[in-house]
Amino acid sequence: MNATEVMNRLKAAGAAERAADLETRFGTGNYLGVPPQTLEDMARELRQEIAFPARLMVAQELWNSGVLEARLMAAKLLTQARIADDAAVWDQICAWISEAGNWAELDALANAGARRIVTDLSRMETVHRLAKSERTLDRRAALGLSLPLAKLAHPDEDEKNAIDDVLFWLTHALQDADKDVSRMADTWLRSLGKHDRKHASMVRRVVQSRTNAD
Fold this sequence. Notes:
The chain is globular and about 55 Å long. Helix 3 crosses helix 5 and helix 11 packs antiparallel against helix 12. By secondary structure, the chain is mainly alpha-helical. It contains 12 helices and no strands. The longest helix is centred in the C-terminal third of the chain and has 18 residues, at 157-174.
């Protein structure tokens, strides 16, 4: 299975009406109109059919096509819990985050990158840099990449420290001028609050006190 064959499968699954809707949502671009569930099902099959390192090369070709669904598929091909020697995969995801042109591409990449962070918390350094970026999509990426931390019911000491580092800038993300960022920040905090009400409430209080001071 190569990138051309994957692209042909994507084209066959596309629909002109949905492609037009995507263009209305995201602006001028290349769209096939493949339904989300079809993309997910296809990605699951392709991850079984294509092993690394060939899968990374296929993903790279798909991403470089510039077609939305091909880029989403590229990210999904790299979305896997266990990947041996995943440094090249992590580096590629980070490079693509800087190239993502809309939140759909960005969120797919963040979902893939989050798996790599869980396996190596030192990668949170990249997340903190993204959180400080002037680019909206970068700030949203920081939240998506670190979201698994918010869902840990029983974090170990290293994970607790990583969560604390996120909470340091999460209060600002909750007040981000861009709603796509602030809503994602709220999702992050609500996920944390399901099993750690103390810290979630503390963050809410900090935001409220800052709002009152303004």
